[in-house]
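Hello again,

I reread your note about wanting to compare the complex against the isolated chains. To keep things tidy I'm splitting this into two emails, and this first one only covers the full assembly. Below are the input lines as submitted, including protein chains and any nucleic acid or small-molecule components. They are followed by the predicted structure of everything together. The single-chain runs will come separately.
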Amino acid sequence: MLPLTIFRNNPELVKNGLLAKGETAGIEALVEMDNRHRAMVTKLNAMRSERNKTSELIAQSKRIGQDAAELIMAMRDLSEQVKTLESESAELHEKISGELEYIPNLPHESVPRGSNAEDNVVVRVWGEKPEFDFKIDNHLDLGAKLDLFDFNRGAKIAGSGFPLYTGQGARLERALINFMLDYHVENYGFTEIFPPFMTNSAASRTTGQLPKFAEDMYRTDIDGLYLIPTAEVPVTNIHRDEIIPEQDLPKFYVAYSACFRREAGSYGKDTRGFLRLHQFNKVELVKFVIPETSYAELEALTKQAEAILKALGLHYRVVELCSADLSFAAAKCYDLEVWSPGEEKWLEVSSCSNFEAFQARRGNIRYRRESDRKVDFVHTLNGSGVATPRLLVALLETYQTEDGTIILPPVLQKYMGKRELK
RNA sequence: GGAGAGGUGGCCGAGCUGGCUGAAGGCGCCCGCCUGCUAAGUGGGUAUAGGCAGUGAUCCUGUCUAUCCAGGGUUCGAAUCCCUGCCUCUCCGCCA
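Full-complex prediction:
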């Protein structure tokens, strides 16, 4: 959520930012409603002040045993007016904040302007494209030969897009998750979190899924809970409605969770295998930091996510998203894309974003500064570290050998209890 | 699922026979004084959000308003009374 003051004081900044994100935003209506609302509040405050003063007079009269009937009669009318204006004001306020919740974050000034994903900028590339001197299989063939997973039975149980991992495939999934959690805890001092996999609407609102993207989430109708599309939602909400002492910042959390996405509107795209799923596993990194450090922390976060791919020896690149490709809540974002030899494509396995105060404002997540003891909103960041499905694709395809066995990278061997899949 | 208790400021904890209570008292924290150092003592300060004004910006000053879990209601007036919801705790039942 953006602060209303910036619409008042710097409407051009907002317009340009929204335009860069590809939003055609009508700010004028919002500003007009804000003006109207402020006039109401001013009037309301005056009326309430009057009421409070008179109430005090009534109290004094009663205390000394005088009759206050006249004052009370006069107040009855004013009180009615206050109530009417209160409800009008509240209604308008709700409308304003309702609209505000649909307005995305503005891109940071360092973000390249662009109109679509074509304008994203490749920042760096790590490793080399693996070469093979035999005809390689894609991950589906490899999975079938080694009985790692079974999409048909997954579909029978739940539906398409719900993978069933089997045998050493299931073990490998668990190994990847454990490896990534341990890595971030041991090397970077992240605190491990195991969050709820469902959140209420307030939590989903903080991170920006609600109200605009309600259709993308699974919801349990009876209890009004949402299955999380990412651990970002519960973990960011750990500190919702809190004031964190500055000395407790920064806070680094790492969490595994299953992620559930309806992927409404994306049917027909990337339907093969693991490329797009309704349920998948992900290890997520979340940071709460003071505003001054958030962009340095974004760079660090990206490198921390990259470290996983390096440790696994996978060829990847870092892409800086252009303004138009930024997600709703992000001010700046780097994607990590791993190379899939079978698909001959780069696959997105991580998104590392700085949300600045956008989520903090929505979730009222603040900190108390040491210098002047004032409160201010924290900056939040998160990045996948990383999502498993496409990682698995790259891993299987990269480490396949001619006889069909997969030689596991050393860091995974202890988690698997063996050196290869065959 | 059944029965009961309760939700007050950073924390603990009064108030809850409705009216100088934004809220006693304590702890913590900040500034000063005192003390050879520490401890103790002592004086003061210490919520958040919003409107308006000050030639005035997410700063400063003044002023007004709101907030005692949330939302309604009663009343001239609600932390205090009534209703609904949420949450926490205790006991019983069920259960991985």
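For quick reference: Chain A has two domains: 28-100, 117-421.

B.
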